[in-house]
Design brief:
Strand order of the largest sheet: 8-9-20-11-16-17-18
Structural class: alpha+beta
Radius of gyration: 45 Å
Number of strands: 20
């Protein structure tokens, strides 16, 4: 086979491979189009169902409210009618009683006039005496038409145009939500959710984040506020969750359409305090530790259950309640757990005291952070700067330099921490001499 033939054969093979890859890419894009078409049709079907259900419920509610209001007004008419007619009925009874008395008196008078001469004097005297007792000049007072009720309906003519205006502008259909989830980052026992606006013309006042298990149909509120990220905690590892977010416009009370749900799960075990300490009481999830009233002589360091803190993560200590401070108090991170220690102010550990002092390998730094009190949040962030190979007694190994950032309040301290060996994970811990300190770790 000539060189020219081999070149043509090779070119043909490359063209076939390129055509195969091109077809694969086109098929992949067709799948993307199918997914996009499914999303459009599925969301349209769901939107129709939501609109129909909402307006049916609105129609039923408005109809029921109108019927209830009409019934209440008719009852009010009945009550006014009865109250107004009752005095007239009483007056009519009094008049009818007077007419009956007058008829009886007329009959007696006419009978007295027809009597004979001998009986006429007695009959006329008795009649005259009875007529005087009846008081024929006393008549009951009948109210004038101006004094009695004349019912009428008072209806606000502006209600119908106002309701019509609200109904004509009620509801809207959006083709794109104004906010979408931007990033889902796994954290120990949780997921850090970040979102962003995709509509520059939409002025967001608040955001609302919800989540649910993939196997569930009910979303739960996780966060409502102005931040554009939130750490959802207390999630089960290796379990898929769906997240969605919406926004509320500036000056509005209704929420925008939901973003496209995004799925995520965490493979990292949650941060937990180590159980079994007599000095500390733990919550059911072991992420909250309370320094109890045990004797001061038994005070020690409470460590994490396992070395679950890794670099390029943020470890946060949230102070729920504060007790009496002591110079030995500390919260921080360490390479190992050492029993018998009363503080993290030691070798192979970095920590901050309740007074704000920062210790690295047992030595206090010149820079200081604000004092820790109720509501304080202390954060630890670390990243690997350099790894140095070492040879100790012909044993190969390596030391590592970490860039550590400790934040408290609006201030932070940055320094390098040199470890004797590379660690896949670090322990965290706390030590409080006096009772009353309560710390939440996440």
């Amino acid at each position: 086979m000539s060189i020219e033939t081999e070149a043509l054969l090779q070119e043909a093979k490359e063209s076939i491979e390129a055509a195969r890859n091109y077809r694969s890419e086109l098929q992949h894009r067709v799948q993307g189009l199918d997914l996009a078409r499914q999303q459009i049709k599925g969301s349209a079907t769901q939107t129709r169902a939501v609109l129909v259900q909402h307006f049916q419920e609105l129609q039923g509610t408005v109809s029921r409210l109108l019927e209830e209001r009409l019934a209440a007004l008719l009852l009010e008419v009945d009550a006014i009618e009865q109250d107004s007619v009752r005095p007239l009925d009483d007056c009519q009874k009094l008049i009818e009683q007077g007419v009956s008395t007058a008829d009886e008196l007329l009959r007696e008078g006419e009978a007295a006039l027809r009597c004979g001469v001998g009986e006429q004097d007695d009959k006329l005297g008795s009649f005259t005496k009875k007529a005087l007792q009846i008081q024929l000049d006393s008549l009951p007072e009948v109210p004038s038409l101006a004094e009695v009720s004349c019912l009428s309906a008072q209806l606000d003519d502006s209600l119908l145009p106002a309701v019509k205006g609200r109904i004509c502008t009620h509801g809207s259909v959006a083709s794109h939500p104004p906010v979408q989830i931007d990033e889902l980052v796994e954290r120990p026992g949780g997921i850090l959710v970040r979102w962003c606006k995709v509509d520059d013309d939409f002025a967001a006042q608040d955001y609302r984040l919800q989540y649910r298990r993939s196997a569930s149909s009910h979303f739960e509120d996780a966060y409502v506020g102005q931040d554009s990220e939130y750490l959802v905690l207390h999630l089960d590892p290796h379990t898929e969750y769906l997240f969605r977010v919406c926004a509320r416009g500036d000056g509005r009370w209704e929420w925008s359409p939901w973003s496209i749900p995004q799925t995520a799960c965490t493979t990292l075990a949650p941060h937990e305090w180590s159980p079994g300490s007599e000095e500390y009481s733990l919550s059911s999830r072991r992420d909250i530790a309370l320094r109890n009233d045990s004797p001061l002589c038994g005070a020690g360091v409470l460590y994490s259950q396992a070395p679950t803190y890794c670099c390029r993560q943020t470890l946060t200590f949230k102070i729920i309640s504060a007790g009496q401070p002591d110079k030995r108090d500390s919260v921080g991170v360490c390479v190992d757990r050492r029993n018998g220690q009363d503080s993290l102010q030691r070798d192979q550990a970095v920590c901050i005291t309740t007074s704000g002092a920062v210790f690295v390998n047992g030595k206090e730094m010149t820079n200081q952070l604000p004092a820790i009190s109720t509501g304080s949040a202390v954060t630890f962030d670390m990243e690997v700067v350099n790894v140095f190979p070492v040879n100790i007694n012909n044993n190969e190994g390596a030391s590592v330099k970490l860039r550590v950032t400790i934040g408290s309040g609006s201030r932070e301290v940055v320094f390098d921490w040199l470890l004797e060996q590379v660690c896949e994970g670090l322990f965290f811990g706390c030590s409080f001499t006096h009772p009353g300190w309560k710390v939440f770790v996440f």
